[in-house]
Amino acid sequence: MEVSSNNKISGIFIVAALVLLGVGMLFGVIGGVQYMIPGFLKDSFSFEKARPLHVSAILFWIILAASGALFTYLPKHTGKKIWSPLLQKIQLGLLLFTVLAIFISYFMGWFGGREYWEFPPILSLPITLAWILFIINFVKSLGGFSKQPVYVWMWMTGLLFFLFTYLESNLWLIPYFRSNIINDMTIQWKSYGSMVGAWNMLIYGSSIYLLDKIGGTNYGRSGMAFGMYFLGMYNLMFNWGHHIYTLPTYGWLKQISYFVSMTELFILGRIIYEWKKTLSVANRLGNHETYRFILAADSWIFLNLVLAILMSVPGINVYTHGTHITVAHAMGTTIGINSFLLLAFAHDIFSGDQYSYHYHPKGFNLGFWLANVSLLAFWLSLILSGILKAKWQMTPDAERIPFGEMMIKMKPLFVVFGVSGMVLMMGLLILVVNLVRNSKRV
């Protein structure tokens, strides 16, 4: 059948994202090996290059895949084509150009940014422009917000807050903001915390659309869905505060943040309460590969939410801040939740009538279980490493062993971390290769 240009462009977003997921996993494994074997590739490809390459590839995997899913599901919701395929193409071109430029800059050793965005700041301009075009295209394609389901509001919230927080993360370029180190770090950590909430809105919005579609439900228009949306937006705006507990900033800000973090207990309670219902749906849709990713993500939401709530308690945060526990939370969220949901979208999109999709149960099952089991080992090894490092950090100076000795004691955990990371890459690559091969149109 003939495919509209909108679908073609959306498919390219997804395919490009899948390629970046594979590339990101490769750089991540190299970084993991460097943990196990200090000095590995130090002269030609050091950890200082492998880490930002891994982070940037995974960030753009999320951005491109979320964009492709939204561009696919929005016209299905409205019954109308995307307002401007040209803006879609320009957005895609800007993002792919930026990814290439970022990779080149890292390989050449040209840095200059901060944390997640370590590339030269000039490359922030095409990202910002691409996102503005995204917002314009979304609003024009939607046509209006009257009586829209919750996933539309989540999409709009994610788009606006990502732009706001991304601009906020670049405020350090202005001398006024970077002249005070406390204010500078507060803004930096605040922007990154809220930015994650912004792209989560895009992903969770598409998840609700997809669940309504494959489950034949109308949850997206329910009062509970809107209640959870407002709670999620409340957390997006204020939950970042647990990142700054260790900074000597305003006490009231930390207290508000702690209160907001504890509202996640309601989300946790609801997950537990609804678990039986989830299992009944799983019995009905358990063989549906798209739903299996959603069910896996649901399990990882539970695990990471428990960890996030614990990390948000100030007395515990003092120990966990800056340890591998923070990395475990970030990796569990990025892979176990975000990536599995994005893979669910990719399976759903590429199994549509406009694609020559061929499902291979054995290959899918192998990749699916390799990814999930190895991710659990990966996640637990990071948590245990974080506990050991936290204990070392809080030991009095007179009794503390040297840092190098502490790292040697943690080496068995780093081996588990590295090996499970390799198996995780294998599992995800099996899934990615199958999806890319089946992305051809009829």
Total strands: 0
- SSE succession: HHHHHHHHHHHHHHHHH
CATH architecture of the largest domain: Up-down Bundle
Supply the number of structural domains. 3
Tell me the number of helical segments per DSSP (H or I, 4 or more residues long).
17
Walk me through this protein's architecture.
The chain has 3 domains: 1-144; 147-251, no CATH class; 263-442, Up-down Bundle (Cytochrome C Oxidase, Chain A), CATH 1.20.210.10. It has helices spanning 5-36, 47-78, 85-107, 124-142, 150-168, 175-178, 181-215, 223-238, 251-262, 264-273, 275-285, 289-311, 314-320, 324-350, 361-393, 403-409, 411-437. The chain is built from 17 helices and no strands. It is an all-alpha fold. The longest helix is centred in the middle third of the chain and has 35 residues, at 181-215. It is globular.
Write a concise keyword list for the protein shown above.
442 residues; mainly alpha; Cytochrome C Oxidase, Chain A; 3 domains; 17 helices; disordered N terminus
